[in-house]
Specification:
about 450 residues, alpha+beta, nine-stranded mixed beta sheet, 15 helices, 9 strands, about 20% strand, elongated
Length: about 450
């Protein structure tokens, strides 16, 4: 049977790299640095804001998003549930992002007459914790090069494939299913929504009215469609979930598919999952700071000046991230903004940014208040010591000028009397000053 569905997908993951990036070693492993042609850069800047384009396609080492590509172009077979599926690995792309974040994508294409082949294949390939012997070819061509570059970028040898994903247990997916099935294109909107949901969740594709143990409830399906679906034109719709972004199109031209891959994935989606990955990492570091034992008085004194507290450093880093890597708007056109907003909502980026910043700010204020209390207590104790020292010195001076033994009947009695009088005098002066300030 002739293929009626063209499936293009990108499997994505991320991990934390070391501070120094060995660009020469990466190139020696077969990765080629990607430099966007200047004419294409200028064209992109007519659709997207210049600062966003420059972030996504940086020519400068260790700044913004630096890309390396490893071409594969190999067709492979995999046997899943007794059926042989064919797919092509096009290339692997490595994204070296700011703040020590490394990301990657594996570009895969598939042509099939059965949409179940699409969900079955990528459900298996994205489950990186559960690779078996049937994944041997895929591991050799797509995963092993990433394991090698992981060692280069982190300085450590990975013990398992799971280390390619810092947070989570599976690879994220951006996918486009472009179908020439006219009967499917004529389905009612509700059935298309069900199909879109099953593709996005990599579930078994059911027939209209068919229900199995993994079928969503009507209320959950409707809620997901209402909140996460994008529907602008009649021939395609999309849905943005936490771990997938899926476009289902009918008879879309090659130009549209190319634009979805180049703009929506390589720019918008990559930028969004970078933000999500960074927030994951920052949240973990923040939680680790909270879980540390309460600081001692000595450590608090050492952290006052000139060193900053850990929370303050995290806040400074986050504010730098906001300034350099977050963009209020990215495009002059409405559709990329719709796509970006949907991906942001699906990944819950804005919500996490606001909550994380609020928590760090509150913790910083709490610690600053605790430090202020400690400083004020310390200064009060030092002031008392200084006051007592000054009273003693003044008493000694008066004893030299007017011997207490002669004028007050005894040296010990004289010291006590003079010290008490001086202390009371100081107290009266301070009380007078506080009353004047309070009344003013």
């Amino acid at each position: 049977m002739a293929a009626t569905h063209q499936h293009t997908a990108f499997l994505c993951g991320h991990f934390k790299m070391s501070a120094n990036i060995p660009h020469q070693q990466i190139a020696a492993q077969g990765w080629k640095k990607f430099i966007i042609p200047e004419d294409i850069r200028k064209t992109e800047k007519r659709f997207f804001y210049p600062e966003f384009v420059d972030f996504c396609y940086s020519d400068e080492t260790d700044k913004n998003c630096v890309r390396y590509v490893r071409n594969i172009n190999e067709t492979q077979d995999i046997i899943l549930k007794g059926k042989t599926l064919h797919y092509t690995i096009k290339e692997i792309t490595l994204y070296l992002m700011p703040f020590g974040m490394a990301m990657f994508s594996i570009h895969i294409e598939q042509e099939t007459s059965c949409l179940d082949d699409c969900t079955s294949l990528f459900f298996s390939l994205r489950s990186i914790d559960y690779y078996t012997d049937c994944h041997e070819l895929f591991i050799a061509k797509a995963i092993q090069p990433l394991m090698d570059v992981f060692k280069t970028l982190t300085g450590t040898t990975p013990e398992s494939y799971s280390e390619l994903i810092d947070n989570g247990n599976k690879l994220r997916i951006f996918q486009v299913i472009n179908s020439d099935d006219k009967e499917m294109a004529a389905l009612p909107e509700s059935e298309k929504d069900m199909l879109l949901y099953e593709l996005a969740t990599l579930s078994r594709i059911t027939k209209p009215g068919e229900v199995d143990e993994y079928s969503p409830s009507e209320s959950y399906l409707q809620k997901t469609i209402d909140q996460n679906k994008i529907s602008v034109f009649r021939n395609w719709s999309a849905i943005a979930l936490m771990d997938t972004f899926t476009i289902l199109a009918f008879g879309a031209s090659e130009r549209f598919v190319s634009n979805w891959n180049d703009s929506y994935f390589r720019m918008i989606y990559i930028h969004s999952i970078f933000q999500k990955s960074y927030l994951f990492n920052l949240n973990i570091r923040f939680r680790n700071t909270l879980s540390q034992p309460s600081p001692t008085w000595k450590s608090r004194l050492q952290s006052l000046n000139p060193n900053r507290t850990d929370i303050s450093k995290l806040l400074d880093e986050y504010e730098s991230f906001e300034q350099k890597c977050c963009f209020h708007k990215i495009s002059y056109n409405f559709l990329p903004l719709e796509i970006a907003e949907a991906i942001d909502k699906g990944l819950e980026i804005r919500e996490e940014r606001e909550q994380l910043y609020s928590m760090m700010e509150k913790e910083k204020n709490r610690r600053d208040e605790a430090n202020d209390t400690m400083v004020n207590t310390s200064l009060f104790c030092i002031s008392l010591l200084t006051l007592f020292s000054a009273i003693w010195d003044l008493s000694c001076l008066l004893d030299q000028m007017y011997p207490f033994a002669e004028y007050l009947g005894g040296q010990t009695f004289g010291y006590r009397t003079v010290a008490i009088l001086l202390f009371l005098t100081v107290c009266l002066v301070l009380i007078s000053i506080f009353r004047r300030r309070k009344s003013s």
